[in-house]
Amino acid sequence: MTKMLKTIGLLAVAAVATVSLAACSSGKGSSDKKPVATIGSLSGQSTSVKLDSGFTGALTTLGLTPGVLGTATLTDGSVHFPITGGHVTVYQKGKVDPYVQGDLQHDGSGLSLTAGSTVVQLQNFDINPGSSQLFGDVSVNGTVAAKHAYLFNLDGSTLAPITITNGVATLTGTRVLVSDTAASLLDKTFDTTAVKGGLLVGVATILATGS
Fold it and tell me: How crowded is the C-beta side of 24, counted as CA atoms within 13 Å?
């Protein structure tokens, strides 16, 4: 029972980390600090985003058609990206800056945006829980435009309390926002000025398990 409770506790920590809550700045290093919890390998399950009507409406106005890449799926207005790996280390808040460190990987899946003969692919998403940022690779018509670019900001201020069922930690409520970097890239590619940083893409739900 003790081992089970410890595992569930670690899953909860992993889920909290993956929604990318902003870390508390303390100005202290981590070299002589012991972590509260460490999960060396994240093994599932998925990050999904319920697309906001404002975002889909903006795409329609711009003449952009969204699609999914690789193992991503789009059902009932939500896009789902399988978790393929990563790791999380959590320190005592206020003792280490940032106190949540690691990454959450979604290799082999992504989003596409198409307008006429122009196709932009955003894929291989990587969440940095310490900086509340999501990075990914970008290509335009099959040509790589950027690797590990800062695409989305993750705002966990609207996060709902964690739930754990059958060993799966679930967190929902994180707002996914277009970064200034991504907005500039999309504006340049599609010859517009309509895409702005801070545009709400949708609300994320993360299902996390660790091994």
Answer: 9
Domain boundaries, the chain: 2-210
Phi/psi for 113 (5° steps) reads: -130, 125
Mind listing the pLDDT tens digit for each residue in 128-168?
Answer: 877 889 999 999 999 999 999 999 999 877 767 667 678 67
Q: Which of 124, 47, 108, 55 has the alpha carbon at shortest distance from 80?
A: 47
Strands in the chain per DSSP E: 37-39, 42-51, 65-70, 73-75, 78-82, 85-90, 100-115, 118-128, 133-140, 143-155, 163-165, 168-178, 200-210
Q: Partners of 138 in the beta sheet? A: 122, 146
Q: What is the dihedral of CA 86, 92, 98, 103, to 10 degrees?
A: 10
Three-state SS at 15: helix
Contact 138, 122 (CB under 8 A): yes
Distance between CA atoms of 42 and 144, rounded to whole angstroms? 28
pTM of structure: 0.79
Helices (H), 22-106: 53-62
The C-alpha atoms of residue 207 and residue 22 are separated, in whole angstroms, by 19
- Please give the single-letter amino acid code of residue 190: F
